[in-house]
């Protein structure tokens, strides 16, 4: 514990994380079948239950969750470090590397879902809204095949400049 703040983590014991793969006493059978039907709401509820059962809600402030998310993004980045450009499908990666990548991606997702829950943001709705905004910023007929920023295109929709009033010009 540093300065009265418990370290927040996903996978480690003794860390006030956001969720685990299985609840106490549950087997991890049927994981693939369960994953096919998983929703953001299911993850949100499971992680809320996980934290509540362990009395970890006290550590899950937006700030703590954001910092933990940033740490997990760093760990995700390490899986690609020194590999050069990695083609789609990860040819040349062994199963252990792919499994580790999946675990790091899951850590990022779990923290993002938990952070959105603690901030009262419906992540699914926000993501769909953001996709609509991006569709207006990047009209297919103007940007297909180009990686240029939306400010390069002469968007005819004046609403697109007001869609992200409190955000930077960076895109997701």
UniProtKB/TrEMBL annotation:
InterPro entries in alphabetical order: DCTPP
Reactions this protein catalyses: dCTP + H2O = dCMP + diphosphate + H(+)
Source species, domain of life: Eukaryota
Biased composition (Low complexity): 155-172
Single GO BP term: DNA protection
GO cellular component, one term: cytosol
UniProt subcellular location: Cytoplasm, Cytosol
EC annotation from Swiss-Prot or TrEMBL: 3.6.1.12
Pfam families associated with the record: MazG-like
GO MF annotations in UniProt: dCTP diphosphatase activity; magnesium ion binding
Main localization category: cytoplasm
Cofactor(s) essential for the protein: Mg(2+)
Region (Disordered): 1-32, 140-172
Keyword Chaperone listed: no
Keyword annotations of the record: Cytoplasm, Hydrolase, Magnesium, Metal-binding
Coiled coil start-end: none
Subunit structure: Homotetramer.
Main function: Hydrolyzes deoxynucleoside triphosphates (dNTPs) to the corresponding nucleoside monophosphates. Has a strong preference for dCTP and its analogs including 5-iodo-dCTP and 5-methyl-dCTP for which it may even have a higher efficiency. May protect DNA or RNA against the incorporation of these genotoxic nucleotide analogs through their catabolism.
Name under which the protein is recorded: dCTP pyrophosphatase 1
């Amino acid at each position: 514990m540093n300065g009265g703040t418990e370290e927040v983590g996903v996978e480690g014991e003794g860390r006030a994380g956001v969720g685990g793969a299985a609840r106490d006493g549950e087997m991890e059978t049927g994981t693939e079948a369960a994953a096919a039907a998983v929703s953001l709401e299911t993850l949100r509820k499971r992680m809320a239950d996980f934290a509540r059962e362990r009395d970890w809600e006290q550590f899950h402030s937006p700030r703590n969750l954001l910092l933990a998310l940033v740490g997990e993004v760093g760990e995700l980045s390490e899986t690609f470090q020194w590999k050069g450009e990695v083609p789609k499908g990860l040819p040349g990666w062994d199963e252990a590397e792919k499994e580790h990548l999946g675990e790091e991606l899951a850590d990022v997702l779990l923290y993002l879902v938990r952070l959105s829950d603690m901030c009262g943001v419906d992540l699914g709705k926000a993501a769909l809204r953001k996709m609509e905004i991006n569709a207006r910023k990047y009209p297919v007929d103007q940007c297909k095949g180009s990686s240029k920023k939306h400010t390069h295109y002469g968007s005819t929709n004046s609403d697109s400049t007001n869609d992200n009033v409190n955000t930077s010009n960076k895109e997701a």
